[in-house]
User: What shape does this take?
Amino acid sequence: MIHCNSEIGRLRKLIIHRPDKGIERISPKHAEKLLFDDIVYYPLMLKEYGVYSKTLQLCLGEENVLFVEHLLNESLSQNPELKHELLEMIIQEEELPKSMLDYFMSQTSEDLTQVLVTGYDASNDSIYFDPIPNFMFTRDIGVTVNSGVIITKASKEARWRENLLTRMIIGSHPLFHAARSNNQVVNLNKPDNFPPSKYGEKVSIEGGDVMTISKDYLLCGVSERSTSHGFTLLKEALHNQNIIDNVVKVSIPSDRSYMHIDTIFTQVDHDLIVCYKPIVFDGLGSSVEVFSADGKHAWYPSIKEFFLKEVNPNMQFIFSGKGYSPYQEREQWTDGCNLLTLKPGVAIAYDRNIVTAEAFEKVGYTILSAEQFCKDYADVDDPLSQLEKTILTLPSSELSRARGGSHCMSFPIVRDKLEPANV
Assistant: This one.
């Protein structure tokens, strides 16, 4: 059973994807096409990610940290019809011969999973597809909204295979059975339900632009990666399927630096948000509109004003780089505002954002290396319960170069429920 009605309720279960070897095939010429700003050193990235996954396993329990490849493997073995449909779409999208369908269908689920994720077939030393290196950012493939789930739709062609694989998992895996049975799945990849506008504006909504901040409010960014038309159709679907009452349009500048709303703010506690000051606090190039299921509409000149008026009048804001240039720009770029909250007041961040860490310390937070945490708490029962007002910092030399933080690298599917008064 899945359920998330906040960004900060104690995290119980999530989906992640360990960077796979497809990342090693990114060349300088193809990096931009694959949405990487540079080529990364895979062995070091894998080591850094290992600290992230170990931290999660220690805090949640190994059985509650689910890996995409394992879920996809199980899904492929459970639903032959959807598997066949998936392969037909991928073969068409990748412009492979139709004869490949029989070959892929004959593979074991485990072997096929590796091919679909990495693009490489070890059985015959063949490369069929480009890698999908952004799959490590599982926030973007789906979002849990109360007891429902949104299957998002990527803006860029380089990520479309991620959408197809996510459809396979959410459409087949027992984890999502209740959501499917209760008509609580919104699949933005169905063109009949979510067509382009009459003016040709496409539907794209990526998970980094979607935040469930309470049982009554879902934030959805309109950004470089998510369109206004996509927002309109998503809002209507969420209201029609009674998934959430208020769908909030957060418009931000269409810029690579702020590709999603979670690159400029994330919530860390009931009354604390870390953010990029110019856009979130000052309202530069941004606005917020609230659309309620009963037809009511409200508008705010900044994200700050929305949170203070609609969510929590005592909300405090700390700034990446303490709100000073050039540190605020540097640390926003390296995901200083992109944190995964494990429970109220405890979150995971990157260690390279040292000025932002000082801002946390100034409001009473402890900064603790995630590596040290894993050593010190390895034999402690429920170590997360021992932490209060703590930021766990990950080694991030290579991870940060992929342009996504700990929030981006997570797809929470179960959090403790928070009542509205506490959100």
